[in-house]
Amino acid sequence: MTTTKRFWFALILSLPMLANMVLMPFGWTLPGGAWLQFVLTTLVMLISARPFWQSAWASFTKHHANMDTLVAIGTMTAYLYSIYALLTQQAVFFESAAFVVVFVLLGQVFEERMRHNASTAIEKLVDLQAKEAEVWRDEQFVALPLADVVIGDLIRVKPGQKIAVDGVITEGTSTVDESMVTGESMPVTKKIGDAVIGSTINKAGTFTFKAEKVGADTVLAQIVDLVKKAQNSHAPIQKLTDQVSNIFVPVVLIIAILTFLVWYLLIGAPLAQALIFAVAVVVIACPCALGLATPTALMVGTGRSAKMGILIKNGEVLEAANDVQTVVFDKTGTITVGQPVVTDIIGDQKTVLTLAAALEQSSEHPLAQAVLAKAKREKIAVPAAHGFQAIVGQGVSGQVKGQQIFVGSERLLVQQKLTMATNLQAQLQQLQDEAKTVVIVANQQEVLGLIAIQDAPKPTSQAALAELKAQGLKTVMLTGDNQRVAAAIAKEVGIDQVIANVLPQDKADQVQQLQETGRVAFVGDGINDAPALTVADVGIAMGSGTDIAIESGGIVLMRNDLRDVGKALTLSKKTFNRIKLNLFWAFIYNVLGIPVAAGLFYAIGLTLSPELAGLAMAFSSLSVVTSSMLLNKTKITAKSTGSL
Amino acid sequence: MLKIIILIVGVGLIGFILWWFFGKHETTAVQANVEADQQTVAVEVKGGYSPEVVVLKQGVPATLNFTRKDASGCLDRVVFPDWGINQALPQNEAQAIQIDTSEAGEYQWACGMDMFHGKVIVKP
């Protein structure tokens, strides 16, 4: 018999007794009186309540006690005493036993449903997976179940279809909605050579890709695994409840016996009265609320953050994130894009860029790559260069459209005896003060223009740091770059403190030094960040980062958006505060409820009947689970919205 | 006279509870049978777990078959926090749970409300 059926059975049989209780003051009594109550309650005890005492007994033989122990002893005591009272013609309280069963079952019915809801987030993620794929086999595309796809298979994806597994596009282009994995709401353009993620949705075009990761190795499978572990992990705060719950039930039983002894022997209350107090004590104590307080909040909190593209690995991280005071950032690739880009072009934009691109097109130098990328973005037709020549330590030269052109550093000025207009000189100085690398473009006589190149901050970095500052956190940037470049970037995005010239192996030491003043979160993405990510109280890895960084971090930001650092910390704080609130209520229920039930406040007229105690018990665990579910509704917004 | 008897019974009950629940009681560890490179242990879930301690051999794929015989909602899930396993246990249905035995160590499991505990010991 399911809990729900047991509940309905108990409720229906209890209704006549409820009517009796409500209508008694108006002179109506249940036909059959106490005997009918006896029959009804016996049925409730035999059918609805039997699992309680079966479970209680099974636990007892193993030297354990649980909530069922309390319910079984509480209702049995009330029931057995009432039989005795019935036979000796005294007042009975069968209804107490029946009502407690009804209320406890009601609480369990709700709680089961809510707990189920709390744990379904992860199943929804798994459901995202495609069920089958169109795979190239025997010279044609055939639909195969997902499990039959192997590494190296060519898979065709039509518009609107789900991408089955992770791979790389070999033919065609399209836009793909990756929001379910990265949380990024804008569709992403994909062309040949781009990676696609399994279970994301193909929007526009048809393409073919080669499967690279299948089964448990796919990104989605790994996310699911990570979230599952997080949801079922323990937060350190739980140790307290673990200890309490081990001794809770036996202690409550002892308190109940003492309550009875004090009332009956010391105060001299009637037997029935003393028993009612003892039963109320047993029934109100709710170890379940304590046990549910942390896991349910963890489950909802980590599940919600996963939906936002923030993977919090476990409860320990969550608790540590709660009182972080300093956030340390790696510069390259975290605050900045990670590769140099052209930021300014001085002089005639098109001419300068065309000439520079013509000379740089055969170069592999990162600065040359930046120039070429810019030319490509500006859709510039790059002419061919002849007589290409590298001038060591200065730059390159060659003939473009019959003209001798130089592209390179400032040193060209002196060596090639070039002239430069004064306004260009001033701008050169200014760009250098902004910590940018400046490339000079010149013909044989004079400088035609300047190109400034820099590893620029990501568009969202400034907003992200403003958000952290609004939360009252100190921000620090760690970098191997020189002081000047670091300070310029720090100023641009608004960082409090810069630690420059840090060797990769010293990053962790720097984090440790900062830890002397408070808890530190470290945000990074590279292999060299892994030690710092591990040492920090909270390691936050960018999802685009290296596998080792993701492995070392406690929190992974799938969207690679620095603004998620603030969100991750806020979410952790909210979840942890919810755990504390839940524990507070769970303890209060028991700490206040037990003395009231024991009749400690009898003198001021404050008592609890066993029925009310049963109701309170049912709703204590229900309220804890509800409180956790409400985490899904709390607002997590960035105070400042950056431009992107 | 009746009151004295009740007092003695009450105090006796308290003493019994202390001894029964807090006293030292042996829990038996069950060693898995290794057969054809596969080890399996059946765990009965009824007012707790029997056995409560399962000893497995490192490196041999292992399965724990949990069967919940208890109607109580308390034990309707089994959670292994180390592996992110949170398995529903429908009543009277054996649920197979694969255990990762690649690393030696002690791994706790618990019911959904963290009230009942058991553990797996993986020995080299």
UniProtKB/TrEMBL annotation, chain A:
Enzyme class: translocase
Coiled coil feature spans: 414-441
Residue ranges of every copy of the P-type ATPase A domain listed in the record: 128-228
Reaction it catalyzes: Cu(+)(in) + ATP + H2O = Cu(+)(out) + ADP + phosphate + H(+)
Alphabetically ordered keywords of this record: ATP-binding, Cell membrane, Coiled coil, Copper, Copper transport, Ion transport, Membrane, Metal-binding, Nucleotide-binding, Translocase, Transmembrane, Transmembrane helix, Transport
MF terms in GO: ATP binding; ATP hydrolysis activity; copper ion binding; P-type divalent copper transporter activity; P-type monovalent copper transporter activity
GO cellular component: plasma membrane
SUPFAM superfamilies referenced in this protein's UniProt entry, alphabetically: Calcium ATPase, transduction domain A (SSF81653), Calcium ATPase, transmembrane domain M (SSF81665), HAD-like (SSF56784)
GO BP: any one term: copper ion homeostasis
InterPro entries: ATPase_P-typ_cyto_dom_N, ATPase_P-typ_P_site, ATPase_P-typ_TM_dom_sf, ATPase_P-typ_transduc_dom_A_sf, ATPase_P-type_domA, HAD-like_sf, HAD_sf, P-typ_ATPase_IB
Membrane topology summary: Multi-pass membrane protein
Subcellular location per the Swiss-Prot or TrEMBL entry: Cell membrane
Pfam families attached to this UniProt entry: E1-E2_ATPase, Hydrolase
EC numbers on record: 7.2.2.8
Transmembrane residue ranges: 7-28, 34-53, 65-86, 92-110, 247-266, 272-298, 583-606, 612-631
Family the entry assigns: Belongs to the cation transport ATPase (P-type) (TC 3.A.3) family. Type IB subfamily.
Name of the protein described by the UniProt record: P-type Cu(+) transporter
Lineage of origin: Bacteria, Bacillati, Bacillota, Bacilli, Lactobacillales
From TrEMBL, chain B:
EfeO-type cupredoxin-like domain boundaries: 14-122
Transmembrane region(s): 5-22
This protein's record includes keyword Iron-sulfur: no
This protein's UniProt keywords: Membrane, Transmembrane, Transmembrane helix
InterPro entries in the cross-refs: Cupredoxin (IPR008972), EfeO_Cupredoxin (IPR028096)
Database matches in Pfam families: Cupredoxin_1
Protein name, entry field: EfeO-type cupredoxin-like domain-containing protein
